[in-house]
Amino acid sequence: MEKISKFKLRIKLLKYAKYGFFLAAIPSVVLVIFRCPYTVPFLACDLCAVLDCPSRHYRKPILVGLLGYVAVTKSDFCGRVCPLGTLHDIFTKIRLTISKKSFKISPELKLIFELLKYTIFAFVIVALLNGNPRFYTPIQAGNLLNSIWISIVAGGDAYLGRLLLVLGAISIGIILPRFWCRYACPYGTTIQLTKKGITKIKQHKCSNCGKHDTN
Questions:
Q1: Which InterPro entries match (predicted)?
Q2: pTM score, two decimals?
Q3: Domain assignment of residue 207, yes or no
Q4: How many Cβ atoms sit within 10 Å of the Cβ of residue 113?
């Protein structure tokens, strides 16, 4: 019983931490979605001219803190830390409150989404190999809405395409749980591929000695 109580307490604390991260990250996420001038966000914050973005000033300590948290608690980053993942979970809870109907993805549609995922990932790799270029030079316009509007105008088609992709993928998450995480987030794809690679390495090293069999 004591172990069960500790487990429940741990789950509750992780849940509180998850939503705490989400609330703290809202300003940064909003600015990154609407104003980040770089092709791939979060990688060049120190050089960014968007002075009011929290990521510009606190990215490194936050990153170190989050990685430490993940290492200590052994939590899954996408499931327990990422604010967009938490946003999708909130969408899912709201939708299930309204309707219990589930939406299944057909094999054909899933294939299309998988192609989308790896297309985005490949595009990100190409962008990074080219120095993570900027869409535009950020201009401070006094308030957030004016700044966003100027960003849309100055960013051109490439910036607008990224914005629509991000907002579209997040919106689809209202219907399909964690759509952004599963099919659009390049960081999520990187984590997924890394996990698969580690699993394959472990399987390759396995000598089939039978010592770890559960049966």
A1: 4Fe4S_Fe-S-bd (IPR017896), Electron_Trans/Redox (IPR051684)
A2: 0.80
A3: no
A4: 17
